[in-house]
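# step 3/5: fold
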Amino acid sequence: MAEKSSTSQHRPFSVGAAFNTAAQWTSQQCGRASTFAVACAMIVIWAVTGPIFHYSDTWQLIINTGTTIVTFLMVFLIQNTQNRDSAVLHLKLDELIRVSESARNKLLDLEGLTEEELKRLKGSFTKLADSPDTALLQEAVGELDAAGEGIRGAKEKVTAAAGKNP
């Protein structure tokens, strides 16, 4: 009997876990060339049967309904796989930043910044990339420090609010 790996430990059933498993499996199947070929064959078969059914409303409704249902379901599937891929990528990048001695660990919390703060920080790094001037570097570090203070303040407010509302 084979031993289970640490990543496939027994977990209680949940709808979310079942959806994740189904989404991963379906995503792998839909990304295959053979699946694309089957979809193309179905469309060709549908088109060829047009004259047989005299291009009736029912004949048209079959392809319209089928493609609409598949498209609707694929939106959720694609969003789930993108969310998972993005989360995994962020974790890997966070680990690389954390272990790099020259990296600024303050960059680990960028997800908490507002759009305006992100734009300002990006502008600072763009200036830094264009001109390796130490004044620009200091400006970027200062803006990063200010953003870090904002994040810490927001975390303190959330912690305080959570403590008041058990």
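# step 4/5: annotate
The radius of gyration is 26 Å.
# step 5/5: archive (pending)
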